[in-house]
Design brief:
Distance between the termini of chain A: 80 Å
Mean pLDDT of chain A: 91
Low-confidence stretches of chain A: none
CATH class of the largest domain in chain A: Alpha Beta
Strand order of the largest sheet of chain B: 3-2-4-5-7-6-12
Number of helices of chain A: 23
Strand order of the largest sheet of chain A: 2-3-1-4-5-6
Low-confidence stretches of chain B: 713-733
Number of domains of chain A: 4
Strand content of chain B: 15-25%
Shape of chain A: elongated
Number of strands of chain B: 24
Structural class of chain A: alpha/beta
Oligomer: heterodimer
CATH architecture of the largest domain in chain A: 3-Layer(aba) Sandwich
Structural class of chain B: alpha/beta
CATH superfamily of the largest domain in chain A: Pyruvate-ferredoxin oxidoreductase, PFOR, domain III
Chain lengths: 516, 733
C-alpha cells in the first residue's frame, strides 16, 4: 500500500448569498465521493445568505477508503490561514477578503476568482464615486498565490447563457489541483439533476478555458465614445489644432456634446469660454499638471452648459439608440415587443425651465416662497412605446431651438460665467485651487431636491471659500485643500451633516495670501 | 419551505446495514427515529430549522407509520412544555430550538420540567449560533444547564459518534430522570458525513398505541413541598446516576499521546479543531493521532470528577479548550483539582481569547502558546514558532499589498423583498418636518436589516416579537413620535400577547407596523397561522392577524400593500397625526419574494414552454440621464439596483444600473415617484410569446416611431474603435 497523504486537500469557497456556492460545493463533494475519498463540507448559512458574503468549506482526503484499512481522517470545520490548497471566490472583492484573511499562501494555494464586481451597498450608496478600487488586487493575488486563475467569469457566463458556478467547477476540474477525474464532475452535475444541460455547458467552458482553447470576449470599454454630428467637424478640427494632449479628448467630447445638445453656435460659445482657461493653463505650465485645469474646466463647463432640462431629457429618451439599448439591456428576444413606461414627475422648476423668462421668472419667484408650490409635482407615466406617448416626448425634444429663450437658460448662463471667472481668477494665483473649484461644479448634478441641495452646497462653498481665496482674501493654498475636503463632505450624506461638520472643523485660513 | 428534503426523507427510512449521507442536523433527525421517539416539536431557527422542516412537512407519511406526533410549536416555551409528556409517562420525545435566544424563551418550562424530572427520555436539540455568521447575541447556553441541573452534551463532530450519543442521551435521560440538552454548533449542523443506519424504532406508546390511563402523582407537580423533595433528588439521585452512566458508557473519550507530562481537555464540539490545530503545528496526524493526550468531553455538564482527576494526575500542565465566556469548565476544573489536591497547572483563557469563536487560526495560536509555555518532553518548539509566524507574516504582507482594507459586505433585503418599500416609506415620512426623525423600536426578523445600510433605521432590537413592548418605556419621553416594528413571525411567536394586548390595556397611543410577508421568512419561510401561501393553504385554516388584533381590542387597523410607497407614507403620516387615541396598527402586507418566486418561476416557465403569452416586467435606468448621485439606491438598497462605471466620457461618478436579477417588483418606479428622484427610471414590459395583436401593434408603432427617430441617426453611430481607444483611456482617467 502506498504511503497515505499527509493531510486532506482543503478548499474554501467565498460567495455571495444566493449565488449557488452551495450547489458548487455539493458538486465538488459528490465528485470526490465518486472516488470514494473521505470528504466533508460545511457552511454557515444564516443572515449572510441574504445577499451578504458567506463561505463554504470542503475537505477531501485524497485516498480511497479501502486503502485506509478502517482508519478515517479527522476533518476540520474551518478554513485555516496557511493551510488552504484551493481558494475559490465568485467575485473580486471577496477574493480580496480571502487575501486579507491570509487564506492564500504562495507555498500551496491556487486562487480561482471571477474578476467582476458585485458592489456592496456601502459602495453603491455613496453620493459620488464610492467604488472600491481593485487595481492593487491583481498584483497582490499574483504575489500571494502559488497559482492565480483570475478572469471575468460572470460576463462569460452571461454571454454563454450559463451560470458562474458551473464554469468555476470546470476551472477547478481543469486546474488539475484535485486528483479527481473530469468525468466525476460531469457525473455529479448530472446526478444533481437541476438545469443539467446549461450546467454541463458552463462546466465545459471552464474546462476549455483551462486548456487555453477559449478566447475571452474583450471587456467593453467603460466609456462610450460616439461619432460627432457632421456639423461639429470644423469645431473639432479647431480643437485638434489648439488643445494639447490630455485636454484634447475632453474638449472634443465637450464640443460634440454641445452640438448635440443645442447647435454648433452653442459649442462655439463653449470653446470661446474655454479659450481663456487654456491660455492661463499654458502660462501656468499646464504641461506639468497634465493640463488638468483645462481638462476639468472643459469637462464641467460642457456638463454645466448641457444641463438636464425637460427638452434634454425628452431628447435622450426618444432616441433610437436608447430604444435599441433598452432592448439589449432587458434581453428582449427579436420579435418580442417591449413596452416602456417612463416615470416623470416634473415640478415648478421643470415647468418654468422651459417657459420664456418673462413668464418663468415671476412664477418661479412666487413658487420659491410658497410651500405648496415647492413640494408640488405632477406625476406623469409616459408609455413611450405607444405612438401617442412617444410623440409627447419627441415633441418636447423638438423645442431645442427655443431653449435659449427659456427661463432656465437665462439662469444657467450667468452662473456658468460667474463660476468660470472664479476659476480663472484662482488659476492665476494657485493652480490646484482653480482645478478644485472647477471640479466643484460636480455638486450641481441631479434633479429636483437633489439638484436644489447640490446648488446650495455649491453656492456655499463658492461664497465662503472659493471666491475669497481666488481673490487672495484668504490663502489660496489653504483654500485648495479646504475645497477638496468640503467637496468630499458635500457628497458624504444627503442631509448635509458632513458638510456642516467639515465647515466647522476647517482650521482658520491664514489671511495673508501666500504666493505659490 | 426554503428547500425540499425528498432525498433526505428517503434516507430517514433506511435500516440495519444501510448508510445515511447528509448534513449533521439530518443525521440527528435520523438518530431520533432510531431512538424511538413518540413526539417531536420545536421552533425553527438556524441551524435547526432543517430538523423541523424535514419532520413536519416532507416526511408526514413516515411519521404516521411510526405513530410519531410532530408539531411546529408557537414558540420555544411551547416546544419545551411538550416535554411534559415524558414527566408522567415512559415515552421518549425530542424538542429543538435555536441557541440561547430560544432557551431564554423556553426557560419557564425548562425549569419546571427539570425540577419535577422525567421518566421518558427527553432530549433538547440545541442549535448553537455562536461566532461567524451568527444572527444573535453572543452568550453561552451552558449556564442554563448548570442552573436547572439538566445535562449538556456537546458531541465531537463525527456522524457515527453523534448518532450514538443521541441514542445514549435518551438512556441517560431515563436513568437520571433528567432532560438532556445536546448542543450543535452551526457548522456541525451543516457538516456533511455518513454513518451506518439502524432500523427506526416504533415507540412503545404513540399515536398508534395509546397510553391506557392518565397518571396522577403529586410528586411530579412543581409545588411545595414536592419542589423541596425534587431539589434533593437532583443532588442525591439524578447527579450520581448521570455521572455513573456517563462513565460506564464512555460518553467522554480519551485519546492517548506520547507526551504524557501534558494534556488537552476540550469540549467535544471543538475536538476536530483541536486536532487540526495540532496537525498544523506538527503535533498530530490527519487521523487524529496526537502527540499530546486529549480528553474529549462529549458531556460538558455534569463533569465527571474521577475522569478529570484521572486524566490530570501525573501531568504538569493541562490545557482546557473551552469556547465562550464565562469559562465555566475552567473554573470547575480548577476547583476539582484543588479538592483532589492535584497541582497540575490549568491553562485556558490565558492562552486562548476570553470570548469569541475559536476558529482555526485562534485555535492554532492558542495551542502553540500552550505548548511553548508547557515545554512538553520530546517536542521541538522551533518548527512550531515558524508555522505561527508564517501565517502572521502572510497576513501582514497581504494587508501591505492590498493597501486598504476590503470594504465590508453587510447583508440586506433580498431582491424584490416586500419589506424594503415599507422602510423607504418610513424614510420619506421622516423627511416631512411635521414627522421628523422618530424613535423606532425594531424587532427580529428579516426586517432587522433596516438597521443596516442604506436605511440605518431602528433604535433598539430587544428580542423576537418585542418590538412593541420595547417602546413602552420610551414612547412618552420622546419629543417626537415613537413607532414599533413587528414581523408576522414575531406577532405569533409572542408579540400578540407581550406587545399588543399589553399596549391596548395600557392605552398606548403610538403606531405599530406589522410586516406581514406571510411566513417566518428569516428562518426559511416556515408557515404561520396567518400564512396563505399565495392561496395554496385552505382559507378556512388561515387565521388573519386583523381578527386577532380586533379580538384584543385594537380599533385602528389598516392593511396596506407594501409596494405602494406613497400610499404607505401617507398612511404612516395619517396614523401619527390622527386625533384618534389608542394603538394604531398598520399591517404592511405582501408575500415574501423568495417564497413567491419559488412558486411562480416553474409556473411561468411552463406557460412559456406551452407558447402562452407572458409579460416579463423589469426596471431600468437611462445611463445618459442619470447624473450619478445615487439617491435611488439610498432609498432602496435592492441587490439588483446597482451601479456601473459612467459611460459618458465627460462624467466621472458611476451611474445607477438595474441588473438582470431584477424581478420587477415595482419599487424603483414607486420610489422615483414618491421621492421625486429623477426621470431616469423606466419600466420595461417584455411581451413573451406575443399574440397577433401584439405583433401588429408592435410593427405599426415601430414603423411610425422609427420614422420620427430617423433624423437623429447621425449623432448615434458609435465611433470606430481605433480612433477612439485613446479617447477612452484619457476620458476614463
Amino acid at each position: 500500500m502506498s504511503a497515505l497523504p499527509e493531510r486532506p486537500i482543503s478548499m474554501v469557497i467565498g460567495a455571495l448569498g444566493g449565488e449557488g456556492g452551495g450547489v458548487l460545493t455539493t458538486w465538488v463533494v459528490r465528485a470526490a465521493e465518486l472516488c470514494d475519498f473521505p470528504t466533508q463540507s460545511t457552511s454557515i448559512p444564516g443572515v449572510a445568505q441574504r445577499t451578504g458574503a458567506t463561505t463554504y468549506y470542503v475537505e477531501i482526503f485524497p485516498a480511497p477508503r479501502d486503502q485506509l484499512d478502517g482508519k478515517l481522517p479527522v476533518m476540520a470545520l474551518y478554513a485555516a490561514p496557511g493551510n488552504m490548497d484551493i481558494v475559490v471566490t465568485s467575485e473580486l472583492m471577496e477574493a480580496g477578503r480571502m487575501l486579507e484573511n491570509g487564506m492564500v499562501t504562495s507555498d500551496r494555494t491556487t486562487l480561482i476568482a471571477s474578476t467582476h464586481r458585485v458592489y456592496s451597498i456601502i459602495e453603491k450608496s455613496a453620493m459620488g464615486d464610492g467604488l472600491f478600487r481593485g487595481d492593487k488586487l491583481d498584483n497582490a493575488a499574483q504575489k500571494l498565490a502559488k497559482r492565480a486563475i483570475l478572469f471575468d467569469i460572470a460576463t462569460l457566463a452571461e454571454k454563454e447563457g450559463t451560470v458562474l458556478n458551473a464554469i468555476i467547477l470546470g476551472v477547478i476540474a481543469g486546474s488539475g489541483e484535485l486528483p479527481i477525474p473530469v468525468d466525476n464532475f460531469t457525473k455529479s452535475i448530472r446526478e444533481s439533476g437541476v438545469a443539467v444541460e446549461s450546467n454541463i455547458k458552463g462546466f465545459e467552458i471552464g474546462l476549455a478555458y483551462m486548456k487555453g482553447e477559449l478566447k475571452l470576449p474583450d471587456a467593453a470599454p467603460d466609456k462610450k465614445i460616439r461619432a460627432a454630428k457632421p456639423s461639429a467637424d470644423s469645431l473639432i478640427a479647431e480643437v485638434a489644432s489648439s488643445y494639447p494632449g490630455e485636454a484634447l479628448a475632453i474638449v472634443t467630447e465637450g464640443v460634440k456634446r454641445l452640438v448635440d445638445y443645442q447647435n454648433p453656435a452653442y459649442a462655439k460659445l463653449y470653446l470661446d469660454r474655454l479659450a481663456g482657461v487654456l491660455a492661463i493653463d499654458r502660462e501656468r505650465g499646464g504641461e506639468r499638471n497634465n493640463w488638468s485645469l483645462t481638462v476639468e474646466t472643459g469637462r464641467y463647463l460642457a456638463l454645466m452648459m448641457s444641463y438636464e432640462d425637460i427638452i434634454r431629457v425628452a431628447d435622450l429618451k426618444s432616441r433610437r439608440s436608447r430604444f435599441e439599448r433598452i432592448r439589449t439591456e432587458v434581453v428582449a428576444k427579436a420579435g418580442e415587443p417591449v413596452h416602456m413606461t417612463e416615470f416623470l414627475k416634473p415640478g415648478f422648476d421643470e415647468f418654468t425651465s422651459i417657459m420664456p423668462s418673462w413668464l418663468g421668472r415671476p412664477i418661479m419667484n412666487w413658487a420659491m416662497g410658497n410651500d405648496w408650490a415647492n413640494n408640488y409635482n405632477f406625476a406623469m407615466r409616459v408609455r413611450t412605446h405607444t405612438i401617442f406617448g412617444f410623440v409627447r416626448v419627441w415633441g418636447l425634444s423638438k423645442l431645442r431651438f427655443y431653449r435659449p429663450k427659456t427661463y432656465r437658460f437665462s439662469q444657467e448662463q450667468p452662473a456658468i460665467e460667474g463660476w468660470l471667472e472664479i476659476v480663472k481668477d484662482a488659476a492665476v494665483r494657485h493652480y490646484q485651487l482653480a482645478v478644485e473649484i472647477a471640479e466643484l461644479a460636480n455638486l450641481r448634478k441631479g434633479y429636483s431636491d437633489t439638484h436644489k441641495r447640490g446648488l446650495q452646497n455649491f453656492a456655499r462653498i463658492m461664497a465662503e471659500i472659493a471666491i475669497p481665496c481666488s481673490k487672495a482674501e484668504k490663502d489660496p493654498a489653504w483654500g485648495a485643500e479646504a475645497v477638496t475636503t468640503l467637496r468630499a463632505a458635500a457628497l458624504a450624506d444627503p442631509e448635509g451633516n458632513a458638510l456642516d461638520k467639515a465647515f466647522s472643523s476647517l482650521d482658520a485660513a491664514p489671511t495673508a495670501a501666500a504666493a505659490e | 419551505m426554503e428547500r425540499s428534503f425528498a432525498r433526505e426523507v428517503e434516507m430517514l427510512r433506511r435500516g440495519d446495514g444501510e448508510h445515511f449521507e447528509g448534513e449533521g442536523i439530518l443525521a440527528i433527525t435520523k438518530a431520533l427515529l432510531q431512538s424511538g421517539v413518540s413526539y417531536v416539536g420545536g421552533y425553527q431557527g438556524a441551524p435547526v430549522s432543517h430538523l423541523m422542516d424535514v419532520l413536519t412537512s416532507d416526511s408526514k407519511g413516515l411519521m404516521s407509520e411510526l405513530g410519531i406526533h410532530t408539531e411546529v410549536c408557537a414558540n420555544e416555551a411551547a416546544a419545551c412544555a411538550m416535554l411534559a409528556a415524558s414527566v408522567n409517562y415512559p415515552i421518549r420525545g425530542a424538542v429543538t430550538w435555536k441557541s440561547t435566544v430560544g432557551t431564554n424563551v423556553a426557560s419557564d418550562a425548562l425549569s419546571n420540567i427539570a425540577s419535577v424530572g422525567v421518566i421518558g427520555g427527553s432530549l433538547i436539540v440545541l442549535g448553537e449560533d455562536y461566532g461567524e455568521g451568527s444572527s444573535i447575541i453572543q452568550e453561552r447556553s451552558h449556564a442554563f444547564a448548570m442552573k436547572c441541573s439538566v445535562w449538556l452534551v456537546d458531541p465531537r463532530v463525527n456522524h457515527p459518534r453523534i448518532v450514538d450519543l443521541v441514542e445514549k442521551s435518551f438512556e441517560l435521560s431515563e436513568i437520571s430522570n433528567t432532560p438532556v440538552r445536546m448542543e450543535f454548533r452551526i457548522r456541525a449542523c451543516h457538516v456533511t458525513g455518513r454513518f451506518e443506519t439502524k432500523d427506526n424504532k416504533k415507540p412503545r406508546y404513540s399515536m398508534n398505541n395509546k397510553i391506557p390511563e392518565p397518571e396522577y402523582n403529586l410528586d411530579r407537580i412543581a409545588l411545595p413541598p414536592s419542589t423541596y423533595l425534587q431539589e434533593k433528588m437532583k443532588i442525591e439521585q439524578r447527579f450520581p446516576a448521570a455521572i455513573k452512566f456517563i462513565k460506564e458508557n464512555g460518553l467522554n473519550e480519551f485519546f492517548d499521546g506520547d507526551c504524557e507530562d501534558v494534556g488537552i481537555i476540550c469540549q467535544g464540539g471543538l475536538y476536530n479543531s483541536v486536532v487540526r490545530g495540532l496537525q498544523q503545528i506538527g503535533l498530530a496526524d490527519p487521523f487524529g493521532n496526537s502527540r499530546i493526550p486529549i480528553y474529549c468531553m462529549n458531556v460538558t455538564y455534569p463533569m465527571v470528577p474521577e475522569e478529570v482527576t484521572g486524566f490530570c494526575a501525573g501531568k504538569r500542565s493541562v490545557c482546557i479548550v473551552e469556547e465562550g465566556f464565562p469559562a465555566y469548565l475552567e473554573q470547575a476544573l480548577n476547583a476539582m483539582l484543588r479538592k483532589a489536591d492535584l497541582n497540575t497547572t490549568i491553562v485556558g483563557k490565558d492562552v486562548f481569547p476570553m470570548a469569541g469563536e475559536y476558529q482555526s487560526e485562534v485555535m492554532m495560536n492558542g495551542l502553540a502558546k500552550f505548548v511553548e509555555g508547557a515545554v512538553p518532553k520530546g517536542i521541538d518548539l522551533g518548527p512550531i514558532a515558524l508555522v505561527t509566524k508564517a501565517v502572521a507574516d502572510n497576513k501582514e504582507l497581504a494587508a501591505e499589498l492590498l493597501g486598504s482594507p476590503i470594504p465590508k459586505r453587510p447583508p440586506g433585503f433580498c431582491t424584490g423583498c416586500p419589506e424594503r418599500p415599507v422602510f423607504t416609506a418610513l424614510k420619506l415620512a421622516q423627511l416631512d418636518p411635521e414627522i421628523g426623525n422618530m424613535h423606532i423600536s425594531a424587532d427580529i426578523g428579516c426586517h432587522t436589516f433596516s438597521t443596516l445600510p442604506p436605511f440605518n433605521m431602528g433604535n433598539t432590537v430587544t428580542g423576537y416579537g418585542l418590538g412593541l413592548a420595547s417602546s413602552a418605556g420610551v414612547k412618552d419621553s420622546m419629543a417626537r413620535h415613537t413607532i414599533s416594528i413587528m414581523g408576522d413571525g414575531g406577532f405569533w411567536h409572542n408579540g400578540l400577547s407581550t406587545g399588543i394586548s399589553g399596549a391596548v390595556y395600557n392605552k398606548h397611543d403610538n403606531l405599530l407596523i406589522i410586516m406581514a410577508n406571510g411566513y417566518s421568512s428569516a428562518t426559511g419561510q416556515q408557515h404561520l397561522p396567518s400564512t396563505t401561501a399565495g392561496g395554496i393553504r385552505p382559507p378556512d385554516t388561515v387565521v388573519p392577524m386583523e381578527n386577532a388584533l380586533k379580538g384584543v381590542g385594537v380599533k385602528w387597523i389598516k392593511k396596506q400593500y407594501t409596494y405602494q410607497v406613497s400610499t404607505m407614507r401617507d398612511l404612516i403620516k395619517e396614523a401619527l397625526t390622527s386625533s384618534e387615541k389608542g394603538l394604531k396598527v398598520i399591517i404592511a402586507e405582501a408575500e415574501c419574494q423568495i417564497a413567491k418566486q419559488r412558486r411562480e418561476k416553474p409556473r411561468i416557465s411552463k406557460l412559456l414552454k406551452s407558447g402562452k403569452r407572458v409579460i416579463r416586467t423589469r426596471f431600468g435606468v437611462d445611463e445618459d440621464t442619470c447624473t450619478g448621485d445615487h439617491s435611488c439606491i439610498r432609498l432602496s438598497g435592492c441587490p439588483s439596483l446597482s451601479v456601473k462605471p459612467n459611460p459618458d466620457p465627460l462624467r466621472k461618478d458611476p451611474v445607477a444600473s438595474v441588473l438582470n436579477s431584477c424581478v420587477g417588483c415595482g419599487l424603483c418606479g414607486e420610489v422615483s415617484d414618491a421621492a421625486v428622484l429623477c426621470p431616469s427610471f423606466f419600466q420595461a414590459e417584455i411581451v413573451q410569446n406575443p399574440n397577433i395583436m401584439d405583433r401588429i401593434a408592435h410593427k405599426f408603432r415601430s414603423a411610425v416611431i422609427g420614422m420620427l427617430q430617423s433624423k437623429q441617426e447621425a449623432a448615434e453611430i458609435p465611433a470606430p474603435q481605433q480612433d477612439s481607444t485613446d479617447d477612452i483611456r484619457v476620458a476614463a482617467e
